[in-house]
Design brief:
This protein is of the alpha/beta class and about 400 residues long. It has helices at about 5-20, 20-35, 45-50, 55-65, 75-85, 90-110, 115-145, 235-245, 280-290, 310-320, 335-340, 370-380, and strands at about 155-165, 170-175, 190-195, 200-210, 220-225, 250, 270-275, 295-305, 325-330, 345, 365, 390-395. A six-stranded antiparallel beta sheet has the order 4-3-6-1-2-5, with helices on one face. A six-stranded parallel beta sheet has the order 10-9-8-7-11-12, with helices on both faces. Strand 11, helix 12 (about 370-380) and strand 12 (about 390-395) form a beta-alpha-beta unit. The relative contact order is 0.10. The model has no long low-confidence stretch (mean pLDDT about 90). The chain binds flavin-adenine dinucleotide and protoporphyrin IX containing FE. Its EC number is 1.14.12.17. This is Flavohemoprotein. One of its GO terms (molecular function) is oxygen carrier activity.
Amino acid sequence: MTDEQKRLITVTVPVLKENGVLLTTHFYKRMFTHNPELKNMFNMGNQQSGKQQTALAMAVLAYAENIANPMVLLPVVDRIGHKHTSLDIRPEHYMIVGNHLLESIKEVLGEAATPAIIDAWGAAYQQLASLMSGHEAKLYEKQTIKTNGWTGWRPFKVGKKNIESAEITSFYLYPTDGGHVPMHIPGQYLSVRTFLPDLNLNQARQYSISSAPNEEYYRISVKREKGQNLDANGLISNYLHDFVNEGDVIDLTSPAGNFILAENIAAPIVLISGGVGLTPLMSMLQSLTGKNHTQPITWLHGCRNKSVHAFKDQLDQITSTNSNVKQHTFYNVVTPEDIANGVMEGHLDISSILELHQHPDTNYFICGPSAFIQKQFQDLQAQGINKNAIFFEEFGPQLLQLN
Ligand SMILES: Cc1cc2nc3c(=O)[nH]c(=O)nc-3n(C[C@H](O)[C@H](O)[C@H](O)COP(=O)(O)OP(=O)(O)OC[C@H]3O[C@@H](n4cnc5c(N)ncnc54)[C@H](O)[C@@H]3O)c2cc1C
Ligand code: HEM
């Protein structure tokens, strides 16, 4: 890009940001009108709830804002790249998005959109698209060269469906082609895609793998999402609970994500989960105990009450057979029986656990709702724990900027 192009970008970013909602609304409307097939790729729930429709266009603007030093955005490119590869997004899709984004910029800027300004935006988008699709090409390559690796969508059969709590059900997923699967890294997620007859669309969602790495199957554990309005229930989670049964087939992409347990980690581990956020941590715990990790592991879990406490029996069994694993459980509502079993009342509070940071190398993994992650992160920092030792996963577009 020329210096003049960079200058033109810098001058127009504030106008586009000011009109951010107009830009993104325009962009998605345009894209879904001209390329309706992309509705199968995007989360139409996110589009409705307004949570994420700005993510793509806003990320482009954030990049443009840093056009003088785009490298500051590299860590974000890796996270988005994992999400994109998990949705099978390929270089040709960047062409379509770029075309609609440029047309939307023209429409928002109106007469101010001179040919030089549009050229500059074209060059900036191209640069970002090459950076991102180049990184994604490396991620696809890594997936391909893994033993049993694959990229894109692959059909899997539900081998077993198991109720884990009043709200969470597990699905054990085996490839229909009879092949094996690559071992995931504990903490990773995969995308599940299924056809929704009511929408006449395919829809995909991410689910953390809750089983320990193995070459036979992946287990995901899905919480039935009730909408805040009674008529707005979660599309895929309810579909999986109600209509996907043993023997049915759904499509999966390869494990992705960088919320992961380092290989051969030899440090104490603290796993902190809220509600269904326990799924990636179950994979970590089962993997660690399966490998005879001898360092202390502390499992902290908070949920509303015993009826929604998934994997309780399995966790009790793991703690009773591994002397290095301790668990502390918090229920919002406790019964005398819960108290007798050592459950604490109220929201998960790390300050009530004395032996949490006995070793400076301890790694902390948090997963749960955004407000939960934020609270645990702040409480850990208040105890003097370095933020570089704290890792977290949000079950939605990453909006938190904590470390
Ligand atoms: C990395 C990652 C890992 C994840 N791991 C897991 C996991 O292990 N287990 C798990 O259960 N989930 C997990 N999730 C969340 C999962 O991907 C889905 O977001 C979740 O299942 C909800 O999807 P859905 O289709 O049921 O709901 P959607 O239809 O996508 O709706 C999402 C929420 O918005 C509400 N909503 C939708 N439309 C409206 C509307 N018009 N008005 C008001 N509210 C509305 C819904 O009721 C619901 O609560 C993970 C997400 C990510 C990103
Ligand atoms: C330079 C171009 C792009 C940028 C800057 C960008 C940015 C982003 C960001 C920030 C997210 C959210 C990540 C998260 O969940 O934390 C995201 C998710 C996503 N992106 Fe992109 N993206 C680009 C190109 C594309 C293309 C070409 C496609 C496909 C046509 C695409 C499809 C998606 C989808 C489907 C999601 C998941 C969210 C959803 O389903 O609504 N993106 N992208």
